[in-house]
Specification:
single chain, about 350 residues, mainly alpha, three-stranded antiparallel sheet, 10 helices, 7 strands
Amino acid sequence: MPAASSSRKRASRARREPSDDRIEEGDPTQRNNDDVVNGDGSEDEQPARRMKKGRGQAVQRDPDPVDQSDDENGIIDLENFCDQPLDRKESTKLHGIAQDWEMIRKQIHQSSFSLVKNIAMSLADVMEVDQSTQALDEVDAIMRDLLDIDKEMISHEQTLKELHQKLLLEERVEDVMNKYEKAVKEDMDQYRSRTSRQKYGSSEVYTQFKQGIFEVQNPGIGIPPINEFIPREEGDASDDEDDLEVGGITQDYKCPLTLTTLVNPMTSKICGHSFSEAAIREFLKNPKAGGTPCPAAGCTKRLTMAVIQPDKDLEKKVKIAARKRQRQEEDSDDGEVIE
């Protein structure tokens, strides 16, 4: 029995004394070899860095990948782009840019033409001729600015299309940016050197703009040639030669079918004649093969409802002309002398 007691005491002392390999039991205070402690002993301020081990060898972290070149990322080096020739594989990109210019011009810019024209017609309707001159001159300047911008858009579009055609013909285009900018500049310089008649006299948009104002201010009077709305400048043909130009037609706003004022007018896209909506629908309700002859006197075109469309601009003119006639009749009644 005494031997057993002595053995238990030795075991108890062994548990209390630290072991020879200095590893503590319970909560260890030593750190694993993988843990890294910064200089001031704080672990929170700097994340620990660990080394991956595999098959007895330490695996270091891969170095940061080398940045790919701009070409691999699809980014164009703008500084050196002018020196890079284009070949056929780039033609699709140029064609896409040209289409973007065309879309902007047609869908966004051209909608402003109609807005400016409507503003001018409204001013001509509510203001007397002698009072509206300054206001209409300001609107006229806006319309000309829009036409100038439209021309510049067309110049960009056409230049890109010409470069696109060269690439399709297997031509290499060197120094493309300088060629592109030079072509646009030369085209615009030539345009700006023209007189006002040369720039705007042949524009259908400007012609309709000026004629619309004249129709509102002078209902029932034949529209003069467009050059009468644009003062002659140096470089224009003489006014004597302009006298040979034929003026526009007189718009009486009557339907060829009903012979009364147009109601909800609809206009033919192939001959330009206009009709009241109810009358033309009734006229074309029994379609014939190849279309029905246009009911306007002297017209040989054949019509179907597919080529007839609502004409909001004409409807506005009809309403303005009606108000103009009403005011003239009222002024005439006020001027009568009652005995």
